[in-house]
Design a protein that fits this description.
This protein has 787 residues and is of the alpha/beta class. It has 27 helices and 25 strands. Strands 2-4-5-6-7 form a five-stranded mixed barrel. It has a five-stranded parallel sheet with strand order 9-10-13-8-14, sandwiched between helices. Helix 5 (178-187) runs parallel beside helix 7 (205-257) and helix 11 runs antiparallel to helix 12.
Length: 787
């Protein structure tokens, strides 16, 4: 017996007709993915298992198999409860044994059937079958119309689907029976399993055609969408390829003519000649030559080519030459500073001193100023005026929130997308070696995972080191000694001490009302009219209304709030102008209230002590000076003190010191017996800290203990010790400005602050009386009289 006889069995005889000898009981073969429709000869692979034996028995018996589709793609070994009840009966034509134990059979599918009953489970899966009649289910004309639609749509699908073969198209043209045509078209569509099964279960030809038409239409829409997406992708690819080829052709032409090479050679050779002529450090020239040689020997298509080119372009753009000699006119500089800023005489004087020194000694080292003051006092605008007065270019960048030291010192060139730091970038943009660079919001730098930018600034802001500053990107020394660095901050408390040591601190206090009035008249009102398009209207604010407007709508250290309120008035006037309403030429108090509504600052009851246990203190914050009405009451307890108002650690310690001192100061020992003190510092939502409220707390507790009201019109500041000594405090000018802003006339200060008081301008101190004290009993006598 030959190998062919062993592995293959072929069943002779003619194919049976549909009407003849259909079995009423047969073997069932489950199919996993998709069914086989009637009238098709197709191969099927039966894997090793129980259904191989079913195939062998079917060949021995009558060669019929019932093909049924599984509901879920589970193992067909346990398929009795996982089959659809409608399938296709088929006859085995040929069988080939496979090496893995399975078989490959060729079957001819014949007709739909329904499972009446499962007659056998093991070892073979067998069932009784019934064959429902396949009726039209609709009129012949409707069937004919659906046939034509099916042919048209199938041709359209064949034209747009390259997977259609000529044999499939020919078969389509030769099928003339409606049911067979529907089955054939459905068999070539890519549908879900349930959709295939719904067509198999359609015994009415009209229903079957209708379903197939629906699925065919969906398939055509999907093919059109797929073609559209493919066309879009191809267009993009073609465009990119076209651009790429054009660029390559351009490069080839430039290379052939020597244009590109000549241009880069001239540019970078000129850079080397320029550096040699400046007599710079030999290391800079050698490193630049090495990079230029490396650039010329690098393939233009490699990744390193653009890295080298960007690096050389940065070197070429930097101002290596010495700064030009500035013809500084001190008189003009003073005029510029006075033009742009009202008062601030100490700040202007220090800047003019710098300009004078630089005029006499242009080769002197650079200077680093740090302007510290509340928001809106003009720190940034002072830096701009300095640049104009000195005849230098101005560059500003904010370091607030900066967390990466590479922002200052650049990235090393080993990183993708490396670039120089902001300092070198500022010089590259200004193209001068001595610009004015403003480091804004210096107190708001942060420490992140990428390092500490404040530490990176140490080399930049140290006049002894910045003459050979090394940016990580350049990796060669660059002289920053000619740069005029100006930093701004709201408070110096959060600036690292080592960084503060490298700068000269200039404090800018808040403005008093008189200063705000002058600034409003000279700058704010006219600028707001111009900005809002009412410059030609010649509208004025009544002089008598300016002070009430400032005090009632903008009680702050700086000018931003006042400027916002001014803009708000002018915007409303602009709207009235466009609406044709009458605009008064002189704005009065009544007009201001009508335009802005009720003023937010009208109640002064939290300024003057009105009951025992209250006293007015002076404090300094990052937004300027302020007043604090500290209050206290007795509560039942054991002599302790309870603190509220978001007080910091130092303020809590001051309160405890004040309580201990007053307990010893008051001779009556029964005052604090079985009592505790609750001390509160409004406003409760604002964090407060510092020792300067010590004498205010002590006065509050003493006033409560002896049941006397503190004299009105007094405000105080000073640190207290356990022995009653009054120590010096900081932020004196800001506190004086805050007291004057609310109308306080008498201020109690530590005697140790006398030198600071003498530095405060006379116009700030005008109208105030200062009481200098060194011990607390002096404070008590001033405010509460003899005890």
């Amino acid at each position: 017996m030959s190998a062919q006889d062993t592995n293959s069995s072929e069943i002779p005889g003619n194919l049976i007709q549909i009407e003849d000898f259909l079995p009423h009981e047969t073997f069932l073969l489950p199919l996993k993915s998709r069914p086989v429709f009637p009238g098709i000869i197709t191969p099927l692979v039966v894997p090793m298992g129980r259904f191989v034996a079913s195939v062998e028995e079917a060949i021995l018996k009558d060669r019929f198999l019932g093909l049924v589709l599984l509901k879920k793609d589970d193992s067909p070994e346990d398929s009795e409860n996982n089959m659809f009840e409608t399938g296709i009966v088929s006859r085995i034509i040929k069988k080939i044994n496979l090496p893995d134990g399975g078989v490959n059979i060729l079957v001819n599918t014949i007709r739909r059937f329904e499972i009446s009953k499962i007659t056998q489970h093991n070892p073979f899966l067998m069932a009784n079958l019934s064959y429902p009649e396949e009726g039209l289910g609709t009129s012949k004309n409707a069937i004919k119309a659906m046939m034509r639609s099916l042919v048209i749509l199938t041709k359209e699908l064949a034209q747009n689907n390259p997977l259609f073969t000529e044999d499939m198209k020919l078969t389509m043209m030769n099928v003339d029976e409606p049911g067979k045509m529907a089955d054939f078209v459905c068999s070539i569509l890519n549908l879900e399993k349930e959709e295939y099964q719904s067509v198999i279960e359609s015994f009415r030809i009209g229903d079957r055609l209708e379903k197939v038409l629906l699925y065919l239409k969906k398939e055509i829409e999907l093919v059109h969408l797929q073609r559209k997406i493919q066309d879009q992708i191809n267009d993009k690819i073609d465009k990119q390829q076209r651009q790429y080829f054009l660029r390559e052709q351009m490069k080839a032409i430039q290379t052939e003519l020597g244009l590109d090479q000549e241009r880069s050679d001239r540019k970078y050779n000129k850079l080397i000649e320029r550096l040699k002529a400046l007599k710079l450090d030999e290391q800079i020239i050698e490193e630049t030559q090495r990079e230029v040689e490396k650039f010329h020997s690098t393939d233009p298509h490699s990744a390193d080519y653009n890295v080298l080119r960007n690096y050389l372009d940065t070197l070429e753009a930097l101002p290596w030459e010495a700064s030009p000699v500035r013809n500084i006119d001190i008189t003009k500089a003073r005029r510029i500073l006075d033009r742009d800023h009202y008062k601030l005489d100490d700040v202007k004087e220090r800047i003019l001193e710098f300009l004078a020194v630089h005029k006499l000694n242009p080769k002197g080292r650079g200077i680093i100023l740090c302007l510290v003051g509340p928001p809106g006092v003009g720190k940034t605008s002072i830096a701009r005026s300095v640049a104009e007065a000195a005849g230098r270019k101005f560059f500003r960048f904010s370091v607030g929130g900066m967390r990466d030291e590479a922002e200052i010192k650049g990235h090393r060139r080993t990183y993708v997308g490396a670039m120089p730091g902001k300092i070198i970038n500022a010089l590259r943009i200004t193209k001068e070696k001595d610009p004015v660079i403003l480091l804004d919001e210096l107190d708001k730098m942060s420490v992140g995972f990428q390092g500490d930018p404040a530490s990176a600034l140490l080399e930049v802001l140290d006049p002894e080191q910045n003459s050979s500053f090394r940016d990580h990107y350049l990796d060669m020394p660059f002289d920053l000694s000619g740069v005029f660095f100006i930093a701004t901050a709201n408070t110096s408390d959060t600036i690292p001490r080592v960084l503060l040591d490298r700068m000269e601190i200039i404090n800018l206090s808040g403005y008093i009302t008189d200063e705000k009035v002058q600034i409003f008249k000279k700058y704010l009102w006219t600028r707001s009219l111009d900005r809002n398009g009412l410059k030609d209207k010649k509208i004025e604010l009544d002089n008598k209304s300016i002070v009430p407007f400032i005090n009632s709508y903008s009680r702050e250290s700086g000018l931003r709030g006042l400027e916002k309120m001014t803009d708000k008035i002018v915007r409303k006037l602009a709207l009235k102008s466009l609406e044709g309403k009458k605009i008064p030429k002189t704005i009065s108090d009544k007009d201001i209230k009508e335009l802005l509504g009720s003023p937010p600052f009208v109640d002064d009851r939290m300024i003057y002590p009105q009951v025992p246990g209250t006293a007015l203190g002076l404090a300094w914050t990052s937004i300027g000076g302020t007043t604090l009405l500290i209050e206290s009451v007795f509560v039942k307890g054991d002599g302790k003190i309870f603190l509220t108002g978001q007080l910091g650690k130092m303020m809590e310690e001051s309160a405890n010191i004040a309580l201990s001192y007053i307990k010893n100061y008051v001779k009556d020992g029964t005052v604090f017996q079985d009592k505790s003190i609750h001390l509160h510092v409004p406003d409760g939502a604002t964090p407060k800290d510092g020792p300067s409220a010590g004498i205010t707390m002590a006065t509050t507790i003493l006033s409560l203990a002896i049941n006397r009201v503190v004299k009105k019109g007094f405000a105080m500041t000073g640190e207290i010790t356990l022995t009653g000594e009054v120590l010096a405090i900081g932020g004196l000018r800001e506190k004086i400005v805050a007291a004057k802003r609310v109308g306080v006339k008498n201020i109690i200060l530590p005697k140790d602050n006398l030198s600071n008081l003498e530095e405060v301008p006379e116009y700030v101190k005008k109208g105030l009386k200062f009481h200098l004290v060194s011990k607390f009993p002096e404070v008590a006598e001033l405010l509460l009289g003899k005890i």
